[in-house]
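S.,

As promised, the heme C run. Input:
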Amino acid sequence: MWDFPLLPEAASSTAAEVDALFWLLIGVAAFFGGIITAGLVYFNIRYRKNSKASRAGAVSEHLPLELLWSIVPLVISAGIFGWGAKLYFDMHVPPEHAREVYVVAKQWMWKIQHPQGNREINELHVPVGVPIKLVMTSQDVIHSFFVPAFRVKQDVLPGRYTTTWFEATKPGEYHLFCAEYCGTSHASMKGRVVVMKQEEFERWLAGSRLAEPMTASGDQLFRQFGCVTCHSQTSQERGPSLHGLFGSTVRLADGSTVTADERYIRESILNPGGALVAGYKPLMPTYAQQMSQEQLFQIIEYIKSLGGPQIAGERKNP
Ligand code: HEC
Ligand SMILES: [Cu+2]
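Predicted complex:
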């Protein structure tokens, strides 16, 4: 009876703070709910019909009292907002050195690939104590990646990338659910996250590697789809070199600038006319109908391997 779990196990670096905020909200609501309920009951009884209590001197206006019950809730709610906003940003901005994992959701399974090549279905193996960034998309309807023990829940959308991150703090196995109703077998769209000690994870990674690293698959796709004919370093007249692209700032033909992240690269490949790079003609064909979500992730991983802003000097587009 005494270990009746009110909340799921807390197994990530942000879980304790999420729970603290949750309990604060419950506490504030219970405190004021209690005061109001007690007053309601007390005054109902005291001033019931036919009671002898005096009704003289009823107050109709009281400035200090009104200021008090306006300012106190304002301070409390602004405090809750501030804490909530800080926590929200912490939970949505992955640390720089986070390890990446790619997730494709579909009716009704989770397909996962690690940059080292390992693929998994409805399972995600991660090392303990290392921040993990998930880059996610759906190949059909909206799903939601939910790991209660990590207090992580992020919608996974078709036609766009969403990201989230977590750092597991305890080795073990945790439930993975889809938290967005997604059709007939939504209820069975579940899996597990396996958190392992570092060296155990490295062993798992080496032992279950059936596919080549994502950069190698991406490199091959880059040739297969003919990207290389316009995007090699010697063909800069046709298309910009992709060396040093990832993470750099790209100037577009309409004068605006954009950071070259996963979303931008995806957009460049599927809808090249949408964000034309300054100084180039709209020559690039769209690949929207030809590429699977997995292939797109592999090409992105390959483009990432071509380096970031530190070598951007080689790029023609500043
Ligand atoms: C016919 C030539 C051509 C082919 C083939 C081609 N591209 Fe492009 N690509 C371009 C041109 C021109 C631009 C710059 C204009 C624009 O943004 O559309 C560009 C822009 C890009 C950008 C944005 C680059 C930047 O500097 O911001 C990316 C990423 C990209 N291409 C990836 C690819 C990939 C991946 C493939 C293969 C699947 C591919 N391209 C195939 C010509 C091509
Ligand atoms: Cu789902």
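Helices lie at 15-46, 63-92, 198-207, 214-224, 228-231, 262-270, 293-305. The two ends are 65 Å apart (CA to CA).

- D.
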